[in-house]
């Protein structure tokens, strides 16, 4: 039975697809450039990728609350098991300011999944370690300076490979239905400590600079960002500054029976794989 993966070119989806293929499972890796194409914002593309699918790993669209209608389409198509990538803080008061809660698609997505007639598992990861090697911090690492309004706050960065391993377990094994797995790495690091680990792994000169929320937004706007996007980025970092992203979660251990991988090991592997050239 085909397993659908949305976001299959992304940090987690790509790893889920690779692991499933290694297990010999039939995979439909869906995205805007796949065949057939899948675009969250074009619901006419949903049916073709759901055809013949019995299980799905859903990487939601962050731009709008589309998980709920997509789940309805998936159930209509006969999907029986769904593993949803969500995020930390969905149920933590004050994690996001109330006026920004609408911008978090995971709140409505989780609620829709929990009430659906389907075998479900929710993954709630913290900040991905791979943001530094594949994501929105990578260019800053290459430029030698990461500027963020994160202060001396720490985050318990989680390996995207660990998230993918939990997703694959939930898709292919019994015992994960109805579980919500909060996922983190085994220790919290400040942005300065994280960057120092990468400097040590790569031999690059790279530093972290704390900037105020207002200065960060102004710098991004000066670079051409829409103000709302710049503000949203700063808001997403604010839990780190406020110290509420440093807690450790046991989801990797609970789901896989082994400890989560440490940031240092993950970044060393990324350096060896040429993540920063
Ligand atoms: N990064 C973090 O630290 C973090 C932490 C907690 C939770 N999360 C959550 O994890 C999820 C994935 O984040 P990520 O960092 O893994 O993202 P990512 O690596 O940037 O991947 C995003 C994926 O979404 C797909 N995509 C984008 N727009 C699309 C569209 N209109 N239609 C179909 N597919 C589209 C992209 O595929 P194509 O470009 O091929 O279409 C890509 O595969 C998000 O919901 C995020 O909120 C992230």
UniProtKB/TrEMBL annotation:
Xref: Pfam families: NmrA (PF05368)
Q: Which domain of life is it from?
A: Bacteria
Tell me which SUPFAM superfamilies the record gives: NAD(P)-binding Rossmann-fold domains
Domain named NmrA-like: residues: 71-221
Instruction: Show the InterPro entries listed in the entry.
Output: Ergot_Alk_Oxidoreductase, NAD(P)-bd_dom_sf, NmrA-like
**Entry protein name:** Uncharacterized protein YbjT (DUF2867 family)
Question: Which species expresses this protein natively?
Answer: Jiangella mangrovi
* Highest classification ranks of the organism: Bacteria, Bacillati, Actinomycetota, Actinomycetes, Jiangellales
